[in-house]
């Protein structure tokens, strides 16, 4: 690998990552540091002179949850509520500077912490970003099954601890999916993300604590940036976060779970926010637009056809199933049968997982029959909890932000397309979901 990178005059001695998880360490593992020198990414069109065989990624220390009984899960969810809350923003944040294309590192004699280093912990199903340079040196999340469109991501997270006064994040320019923002010890350095043009170049985002050396826990959140690791100064350390009890959650849904419908970044949607609010600190999202219990425009997959890839492999403590809006044109009987089949399958494969089921995000009476069908399919299952958003009138009125009617909160919370939540709507929806979850979990 070093000969390849030397031929490219690069300092990116990275291994390739494949499979689920990627990263780990026991809280004391220190980054190996990679190669030294300036971080001068070669032009993305450069061809490597020496082929390299991908290395095997380290075993994660944040494996899928193994739950022995339902009560164990319930106790974990209850204790997690105490840690829940929306992250605040730092009053004295580091200076975050977006880099320019293929720029050298701004850190003297910097070394690389490659993306498969055991000091980096991922909440995502990480794989090598591609086979051609520079994607063969980068990783991406593949936790969401888009059927014939391949595997992709809604959002993923990178966590580590560092004492570095300054570090850099190596990213490929991919417009919105390259967006990323940083939390330091649980607070946002800035709620405004850094993003780069869709030009395929490599960029370094500089995070500068202005000389203050201190151990800090860092979390990076991103839709699906192609990540090439971290650059740090000689003597700086990067270690894996301490192993603490984590609530692993998967939210299965449609476009509302997927993202922001062009109104923002996916890490700002209700699903990502819900995880913070209720202390689910190991959150996976599987949202695919236009899908539902039955809805699955080719080549996408309906919910039941996604659970084997997007839910079961992660063995979550909790699952949220949120959908039905795209099933409005299906017959109620057929819809109920499919919901029942899905819930039967989930209960069989995850007997010790708590499952929350919420109906369509719509106040319309045309979906009430489908809402009732979902409720009936949930029935009295021991580990299933139905959240009746329609009966509680989470969404009211007939307007939207482009055409307000003055008859309900849809004037604020529904976007101009009349379907998807606005950014304010996602905040509101996350809050309502969190309230419903707390109400149930408090009874455990």
UniProtKB/TrEMBL annotation:
Record keyword Oxidoreductase present: no
Keywords recorded for this protein, A-Z: Plasmid, Signal
Biased composition regions of type Polar residues, renumbered to the chain: 88-109
Residues covered by the SGNH hydrolase-type esterase domain: 251-426
Listed transmembrane segments: none
Superkingdom assignment: Bacteria
InterPro entries xref list: Ester_Hydrolysis_Enzymes (IPR051532), SGNH_hydro (IPR013830), SGNH_hydro_sf (IPR036514)
GO molecular function, one term: phosphatidylcholine lysophospholipase activity
Compositional bias annotation for Low complexity: 28-53
Keyword Acyltransferase among record annotations: no
Range of residues in the leader sequence: 1-23
Region named Disordered: 27-66, 83-113
Protein name as it appears in the record: Lipase/acylhydrolase, GDSL-like protein
């Amino acid at each position: 690998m070093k000969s390849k990178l030397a031929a490219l005059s690069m300092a990116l001695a990275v291994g390739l990552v494949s499979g689920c998880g990627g990263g780990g360490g026991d809280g004391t593992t220190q980054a190996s540091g990679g190669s030294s020198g300036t971080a001068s990414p070669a032009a993305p069109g450069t061809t490597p002179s020496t082929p390299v065989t991908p290395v095997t990624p380290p075993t994660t220390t944040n494996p899928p949850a193994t739950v022995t009984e339902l009560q164990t899960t319930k106790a974990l969810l209850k204790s997690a509520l105490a840690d829940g809350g929306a992250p605040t923003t730092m009053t004295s944040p580091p200076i975050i500077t977006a880099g320019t294309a293929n720029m050298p590192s701004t850190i003297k004699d910097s070394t690389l912490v490659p993306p498969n280093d055991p000091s980096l912990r991922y909440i995502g199903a990480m794989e090598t970003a591609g086979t051609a340079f520079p994607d063969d040196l980068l990783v991406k999340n593949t936790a969401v099954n888009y059927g014939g469109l391949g595997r992709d991501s809604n959002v993923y997270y990178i966590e580590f601890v560092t004492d570095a006064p300054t570090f850099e994040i190596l990213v490929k320019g991919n417009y919105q999916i390259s967006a990323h923002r940083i939390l330091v010890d649980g607070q946002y350095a800035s709620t405004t993300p850094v993003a780069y043009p869709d030009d395929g170049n490599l960029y370094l985002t500089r995070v500068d604590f202005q000389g203050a050396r201190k151990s800090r826990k860092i979390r990076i959140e991103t839709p699906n940036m192609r990540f090439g690791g971290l650059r740090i100064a000689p003597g700086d350390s990067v270690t894996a976060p301490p192993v603490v009890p984590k609530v692993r959650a998967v939210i299965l849904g449609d476009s509302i779970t997927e993202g922001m419908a062009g109104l923002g970044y996916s890490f700002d949607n209700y699903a990502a926010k819900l995880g913070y609010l209720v202390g689910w600190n190991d959150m996976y999202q599987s949202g695919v637009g236009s899908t539902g219990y039955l809805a699955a425009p080719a080549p996408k997959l309906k919910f039941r056809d996604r659970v084997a890839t997007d839910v079961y492999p992660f063995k979550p403590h909790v699952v949220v199933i949120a959908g039905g809006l795209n099933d409005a044109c299906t017959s109620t009987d057929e819809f109920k049968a499919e919901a029942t089949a899905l819930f039967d399958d989930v209960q069989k494969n995850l007997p010790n997982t708590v499952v929350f089921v919420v109906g369509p995000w719509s106040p319309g009476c045309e979906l009430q029959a489908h809402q009732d069908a979902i409720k009936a399919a949930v029935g009295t299952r021991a580990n299933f909890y139905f959240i009746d958003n329609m009966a509680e009138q989470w969404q009211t009125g007939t307007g939207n932000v482009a055409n307000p009617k003055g008859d309900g909160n849809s004037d604020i919370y529904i976007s101009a397309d009349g379907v998807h939540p606005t950014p304010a709507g996602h905040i509101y929806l996350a809050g309502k979901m969190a309230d419903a979850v707390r109400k149930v979990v408090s009874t455990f």
